[in-house]
Amino acid sequence: MIAATTLSAATQVQQGQQRKKAANFQAAQADLDAGAERGAAEVRAEKIRKAYGRTRGEAKADLASSGVSVDAGTPLRIDQEIVRTGEEEAAQEILYGGRKGARLNQESQGLRMAGTNAQTEGYYGAGSSILAGGASYYGGGWRSRARGQQPYGGYNQSAGDGTVRIG
Question: 108 lies in a domain?
């Protein structure tokens, strides 16, 4: 009975530790994914800026080829609008990537908390097994005495003269 109780307690502790390790691994992966998402958003934003830079260059070339001065008036406002729109879209992409990264970081925190809780649950389960095993072991002795029997084969029986007989 003692061996079974010990094995049960050890198994519960080990299971709790394994679940914590698994949760920490998943949390680390979520943190990596968060960083990757932020990095990917930066790359997408840079692609947007380059695309708008090409559009800006094409617009200037078209206006210049028609003989219009590109440094004043409507052509200048068109150029400024292209730059503003490109930067807004790039900023939106970075914002989106940052928010997605933040959600992944929150997920990793939740996973770490779940892992810690699983480990704690394993410790509580082990303690419960030990207490249940002890109660079962010692409980048999109390029940036997209540029925007038000597627990565990008559250990600690007094001979009445101050000596103790065993067995």
Answer: yes
